[in-house]
Amino acid sequence: MTQVNTGYINADKTVFGDAEKLFSLNKNILLKGPTGSGKTRLAETLSETTNIPMHQINCSVDLDAESLLGFKTIKTSENGHQEIVFIDGPVIKAMREGHILYIDEINMAKPETLPILNGVLDYRRQLTNPFTGEVIKAAPGFKVIAAINEGYVGTLPMNEALKNRFVVINVEYIDGDTLHQVIKAQSLLQDDALIDQIIKFNEDLRTMTQQGQLSEEAASIRALIDMSDLATVMPIERAIQRTIIDKLEDEREQQAVQNAVELNF
User: Fold this and answer.
1) Start and end of every AAA+ ATPase domain (predicted)?
2) Gap between the Cα atoms of 4 and 78, Å rounded
3) Which residues contact 68 (CB under 8 A, 6 or more apart)?
4) Which of 47, 104, 164, 244 is the most exposed place for a label (fewest CB within 10 A)?
């Protein structure tokens, strides 16, 4: 099987370079950009290049303190003795181990949920666990990256006190030659002509997302990579069906993508 390079690629070299520099200064990084622009891939590449494991939180309106910090449960020993123990969540795990904490779509969370992280994100690098009373100080190496997609359905304005704890890097959607390079590097597809067709098809999808005709996830880099992989073992039309069309719930969106398929392929 072809070896796939999973590193982050962007025509603007300052994006990754500045992220590395901010890491070295122990700054919290807020990656701001549209869905599928590679924010998570950038965070993963930082984790790989620094050799620091990453713990991820996927924010939603249902996110609560237990999702962030952990929860109590009953543990039964071999002799049948039961005791209440606390299972660390991603925030506390990352702090204890000196790992990276990645908070995806941070503005999807309810504003009242996140202030518990204020002490984690400022110079103190510590929190008091409300479930146990333990004061946890972050081990050396602990770093925080968050991602935000402003204006996306379901997002809320980010609290200014929280935003002020981050340094912002804009991550724009990649296209053209850079997108061609990403598809060749991160998928199994190496057919240049077909990759160019896929890029043109994706431009049409992006136009529809900008006009509100299509959900943004349909035009994401993740979907393109999956589609390109499948295109090496099945016709491109079926690859698009499997990776994009069948994921859409709205029949009008499905038909819009199908029209773009017929136009481009």
Assistant:
1) 25-175
2) 45
3) 57, 89, 90, 91, 113, 116, 117
4) 164
